[in-house]
Amino acid sequence: MTTLKVQLSIQVPSGPTVQSTRTVEVDKYETFDLSIPPNSAGTAAAGIDRMPKPEEGPIKLLLIQSNIYPKGEGTGEIKLTVEATPILDKPLHEPLFLLGPEVIASLRESNNDDNNGEISKISFVNTYQPTEPDNKKQAEDKVIEVNNTLVEAKNVKKQKEEAVQALKDSQDVGAKATAEEELKAANAEVTTAEEELKAANAEVTKAIAAVEKEIADHTAQLSIFIGRDAPAD
């Protein structure tokens, strides 16, 4: 047996404080850690499907907590399902703490008698849908567009260089002047395209950082603690 110390405290600003300290004996306990980064469809999921067997003893203590508790309206939600109970696809807006095997067993639905009130699986869905990957895609598309412009500008520059070279020994002063002006303009186009490509690449770098931050900010880090009572003789 393992003795757990459970402390609860409710503090009301300028009001009362309610505290409770309990010692809870469990035959065994397990902890699980899950990480759920969001995906574009808002369907990122993870769960515990290797729950202890009912014959190991009823669940006496259940704690589920997350690093984030989003409440919809653009922030998504963490949806919780505790199978064999009425807790199906419910938003996890606060930590969930249950203590007492009778209370936990009473969660079973009438059509789940075969489970003897046991929790068969705990699963989660992170419904947040990131927006920054779309911005990153737009920035990457811009790089491709500007790079194509640069390639075209360099091809024009090469043609103008060849034209100037072809008129090197020409006595046609006007044609030579025109060719040199066109080459000058082509060089300016290349310079402009290179600057735009540099700026576009910088935007991609910023977009990548924004994607990483958004994913990190909306990744649910979940901790589950399960304590079991001793099995019945």
Question: Concise description?
Answer:
It contains three helices and ten strands. It has helices at residues 101-105, 132-166, 173-217; strands spanning 2-11, 17-26, 28-36, 44-48, 59-66, 78-82, 90-91, 96-99, 122-126, 220-228.
Structural description of this entry:
With 233 residues, the chain is of the alpha+beta class. Helix content is 36%, strand content 29%. It has 3 helices and 10 strands. The protein has helices at 101-105, 132-166, 173-217, and strands at residues 2-11, 17-26, 28-36, 44-48, 59-66, 78-82, 90-91, 96-99, 122-126, 220-228. The protein has a 4-stranded antiparallel sheet. The radius of gyration is 32 Å and the shape is rod-shaped. The two termini are 15 Å apart.
